[in-house]
Every structure is written in C-alpha cells, then in structure tokens.
Amino acid sequence: xxxxxxxxxxxxxxxxxxxxxxxxxxxxxxxxxxxxxxxxxxxxxxxxxxxxxxxxxxxxxxxxxxxxxxxxxxxxxxxxxxxxxxxxxxxxxxxxxxxxxxxxxxxxxxxxxxxxxxxxxxxxxxxxxxxxxxxxxxxxxxxxxxxxxxxxxxxxxxxxxxxxxxxxxxxxxxxxxxxxxxxxxxxxxxxxxxxxxxxxxxxxxxxxxxxxxxxxxxxxxxxxxxxxxxxxxxxxxxxxxxxxxxxxxxxxxxxxxxxxxxxxxxxxxxxxxxxxxxxxxxxxxxxxxxxxxxxxxxxxxxxxxxxxxxxxxxxxxxxxxxxxxxx
Length: 327
What we know:
Blueprint: H1 8-12, E1 15-16, E2 40-45, E3 57-59, E4 65-72, E5 77-82, E6 87-93, E7 96-100, E8 107-111, E9 116-119, E10 125-129, E11 135-142, E12 151-152, H2 154-161, E13 165-167, E14 173-175, H3 194-198, H4 205-211, E15 213-214, H5 216-222, E16 228-232, E17 237-238, E18 243-249, E19 254-257, E20 263-269, E21 272-276, E22 279-283, E23 288-291, E24 297-301, E25 308-314
Parallel strand pairs: 2-3, 16-17
Antiparallel strand pairs: 1-23, 2-4, 4-11, 5-10, 5-12, 6-9, 6-11, 7-8, 7-10, 9-15, 13-14, 16-18, 18-25, 19-24, 20-23, 20-25, 21-22, 21-24
C-alpha cells in the first residue's frame, strides 16, 4: 500500500483553525426573522447547506460528508427544518436546547459542552442557545452535497417573506430589501404539502434521550483505554448516516496507525499533537483537520491535562439512511 506523504505546509492547508473561521450572517431564509437574525453560519468542509452566495467555504473537497458550525448569541434560535441526510451536532461552547416535531413541540433536550446529538432524517428540528454567552455548535451532515439542502417548515418560509427574503426553487436566497428578485423563469421554493407534512416523524422524548444522544462525561469514561465508538452500526448511537464518529481523550494516544478512510479530527478540549512522516502540527480547541487516507500518523494530547476530540470517518453506508424502526 502506497503511503500519502505531506509537508507541514500541505497539512496546514488541510486544517481550519477556530480563530480563522469566517462567518456568514445571511446563510439561511430566517436571517431577517426576529429571534433568528443574529445567527452566524460556518462552512468548514464541503459546500454545506447555506442558501447564500456570500457563504465562505474553507475546504471545498468533501470526504463523503460535510463539516460546519453555527454560532449564536443567547436566546437566538434556528428555525424548524429537516434534511434528507443525518445531521449530527456536538456542543463546542455554551449550553444549547434542541427541539423537534412538526411545530417544535414534540420534545426538547438541553445539551452541555461536549455532548453530541444525532438528528435523523424526516424530523423537523431547531436549536437555541440557552447559555449566557455566545455559543458554538459543530455539525456533521451526511453526503457530499449535504443531502441536497435544507427543507424548511412552511411557516418559516412564509414568515421570511414578511421580512423580505425569498428562497428560490434552486435553493438560492434572494433579498428583496436589497433590490433582489427571482430571475425570470425561476419559481419560489414550493411549500411542503399536507401529505408530505403528515409523513414527518415526531420522535418521542424518550427515544431522543436514550437513543440519539451521547453525553460528554459518558464518552470520557468509555475512552480511558481505547477510542469510544459513538456513532456507527454498533456504537453508543446505532445509526449509519454515511459516516462514523469516535471519541478520543488524553487516556488513549494512538501510535503509528493508518486507515484507508478519510479522517476528520475535531478538537473539543486541550491541545493535540498530530505527527506523520513529513512533520508535526498542534491542534487546539475548535480546530478541524482533514487527514487524508493511507497516511501513517500518531495522535496524542500534548499536555497531561484533560483533552478530547471527535474523529469522523466516511463509511460505505448511504448518506440518507435512518432505520426508524430500530430507534
């Protein structure tokens, strides 16, 4: 097997540093809607699901899934929507409430820093920063094209129109307050029909809490001898969304290992040394690193204090797979 060899400069091009993240405040249709108008969207790896041509994409090449982030001040919320592929979040900073259901009332749960939630397909979801400071959640979306975009609840599209934003059937957003209008021959995004809305799942609270969430302290305990298998067919969360998620902490350094999969390292806490034949880099909280396949590497916390990260790999499963009968 041939080995991938990168220079430190080439590896640095595959790292998106937390301090270098470029936000977009006009990424989605609710960008002018009161309560949602202070959101910041970050597209880290892949084009994501932003509806704005102003969205900055840090790394365009996708490994079979997309990595993004949302930053919001206290009490700012993201409106009800769903995706055709799984959407996984972990809380990097702050305290967040996730809610779901046709009108957002089927249930809700609060996640703390380091907690992870897998939100399956065919489920309306929203989220709100319920902390006291600016918060950040990191996201993983299945598929190279992130499932084809966002599917908004009808009332979200209707309310956005009252504030000048129109979503085209192409998935692009137009702002009438800025003098923009739909191009000739392009129609507005159609609202979901009653029949389509009737097919949306409600997901009881017990299912979400026991089947779709991994708590940070539980993952820390499980990763004392080996990486914790968080999301996979036989993980803490048993789903197959086109990628797998492991949790690694300072108790589980990895020496000279290799894989034929794309591997994305997303640092939660502490500083980590990533070494390979061509050099070494240090990753800090909030950093995202895309390690290519077939490159022997060493991964270890650079200090003895608490350190943790999530490791995401592509799988052969369909990006839109969710076995609701197993939940």
